[in-house]
Amino acid sequence: MTSNEYARRTVLKESLISEALGKERTLRVFLPPGYNDMVSHRVVYCQDGEECFNFGRIATHATRLILDEGIEPFLIVGVDVDMPNRTDEYAPDGGRSEAYARFFVEELMPFVESRYPVRTGDGDRVLVGDSLGGTVSLHLSLQVPDLIQKVIALSGAFLESTVDAIEAVPEGGLSRLQLYQLIGTEETAVETSRGTFDFLEANRRLRPMLAERGASVHYVEKAGKHLWGFWQNELPDALRWALRE
């Protein structure tokens, strides 16, 4: 393929007024090469939508996977973050976490599924998130396992509130969860608005807990920092994993 064919893409901007959040949220919708609205597609939802498109280059990766590797065309919906409220919305113990969950499940997904031909079966929805975006994506799957089974967590911020949530799940209770868990070996002192954390140790700790409860975990640990430069290079493999079937 020529570089022009890779660069040619359709990304639509949508806006959704959320009653749960009490404000408008912007969406970016990638339509794959050869998009046909008479054909149903799987859909990848991205937290931190603008960053995932601009810094993660997810639309470029998707186009290459579809054109070069024959991956079945899929849609991408990037949900732009409300940066001042990011931690409150994405952290499981955040003050707006319940509102964000209602927005995502009761407003966002129905909005997308009423406007675009997307599938709604098991594994047809994939959630992608970095850091706290990975955390909220996992917790959404815990809350509605009948709707969300596949999650890509890029250096997920899996701290005590996530550990508590997993510990509360009985043995075998996560049998429907499929998680791509990426963590960098240089993520041992990540500075956040809530303090400095060892995300490498947090991810290592969570992995066996998930497996004990029946989750299918594809764990990737390699040299990398808590940066989009690391996640961007790993996104193609993560998408291959999520869309392999």
Structure notes:
The chain has 245 residues and is α/β, with parallel strands linked by helices. Helix content is 39%, strand content 24%. It is built from nine helices and ten strands. The strands form two sheets. Strands 1-2-4-3-5-6-7-10 form an eight-stranded mixed sheet, with helices on both faces. Strands 8-9 form a two-stranded antiparallel sheet. A hairpin with a 4-residue loop joins strand 1 and strand 2 (23-31). Helix 3 (58-69) packs parallel to helix 9. The longest helix is centred in the middle third of the chain and has 19 residues, at 97-115. The model has no long low-confidence stretch (mean pLDDT 96).
Q: Given the structure, what is the number of helices?
A: 9
Q: Provide the low-confidence segments as ranges.
A: none
Percentage beta strand: 15-25%
The run of helices and strands is HEEEHHEHHEHEHEEEHEH
Number of E-type strands? 10
What structural class do you assign from the helix and strand content? Answer: alpha/beta
Q: What would you call the shape?
A: globular
Order of strands, main sheet, comes to 1-2-4-3-5-6-7-10
Specify the biggest β-sheet: 8 strands, mixed
Determine Rg (CA atoms, Å). Answer: 17 Å
Global mean pLDDT:
96
Distance between the termini: 24 Å
Roughly how much helix do the residues carry, as a percent range?
A: 25-40%
